[in-house]
Design goal:
Blueprint lengths: L1 H20 L28 E7 L5 E7 L4 H9 L2 E9 L3 E10 L2 E11 L13 E10 L4 E10 L4 E8 L4 E8 L3
Antiparallel strand pairs: 1-2, 3-4, 4-5, 6-7, 7-8, 8-9
C-alpha cells in the first residue's frame, strides 16, 4: 500500500513538473499606424470677364463692343515670382504635434520644413504574476479519526493551485490540484 502512495505522489509531481516545463511563451503585440501625406501642385489660371462698352457711331444706333478687363501683367508676374509661405498643422493632439512650412515660388514648392514633436507616453509596467507559495496547518477529524496536518500550497501564474498535505498523527499524505473557475 505504501508503494502505491509513493507512485501516486511521484506521478502527481511529474504532472506538476510537466506543466511548468512545457509552457507557451507569451507574445507581445504591437500596434502600428502609418499615415501618408500627398502634395498636389497647383497652378493659377486667370480668365478675365468681358464687359460691354457702348461706342457712339454718329447715328441713332449704338454699337456694342466687348472688351475684357485690363490685365495687369506686372501684378500677375509679381505674384508668380513672389515667395509665399504656408503653414499646415497636420496633427495637434496629446500624442504628437506635426506642422509643415511650405515655401512656394513659380507655382512650385521650393522649401519644406517639418516640425515634429512626438510626445512619449509613460508606460506603467505591470509586475508579472509570480508563483505564490503558502504554508499552513489543519486540524480535522470525524467520529473515529482525528488528524493534524501540515500543508503546503503553490499558486501558479496560470492560477492553478497545487496542494500538498501530510497528516502527522495518521501518517497519511494528500495531494490536490485546483483550477480557477471563471
Amino acid at each position: 500500500m505504501k508503494n502505491i502512495k509513493d507512485i501516486i505522489i511521484i506521478i502527481l509531481f511529474g504532472i506538476i513538473l510537466f506543466q511548468f516545463t512545457f509552457r507557451k511563451p507569451t507574445k507581445i503585440k504591437y500596434n502600428t499606424k502609418t499615415d501618408t501625406i500627398s502634395v498636389v501642385y497647383d497652378s493659377i489660371s486667370y480668365i478675365p470677364k468681358p464687359y460691354i462698352i457702348y461706342k457712339d457711331t454718329g447715328s441713332y444706333h449704338l454699337s456694342k463692343i466687348y472688351v475684357t478687363n485690363l490685365i495687369d501683367t506686372n501684378a500677375i508676374i509679381s505674384n508668380y515670382i513672389k515667395k509665399i509661405v504656408y503653414s499646415d498643422t497636420l496633427k495637434n493632439d496629446s500624442l504628437a504635434f506635426i506642422l509643415i512650412h511650405d515655401t512656394l515660388q513659380y507655382n512650385r514648392i521650393l522649401n519644406r520644413t517639418k516640425v515634429i514633436h512626438i510626445y512619449t507616453l509613460q508606460k506603467t509596467l505591470v509586475q508579472p504574476i509570480k508563483e505564490h507559495l503558502f504554508a499552513g496547518f489543519g486540524i480535522g477529524g470525524g467520529k473515529s479519526i482525528f488528524g493534524v496536518t501540515g500543508n503546503i500550497a503553490l499558486l501558479t501564474k496560470r492560477k492553478r493551485l497545487y496542494f500538498f498535505s501530510y497528516d502527522i498523527l495518521n501518517h497519511s499524505i494528500f495531494v490536490s490540484i485546483y483550477w480557477k473557475l471563471h
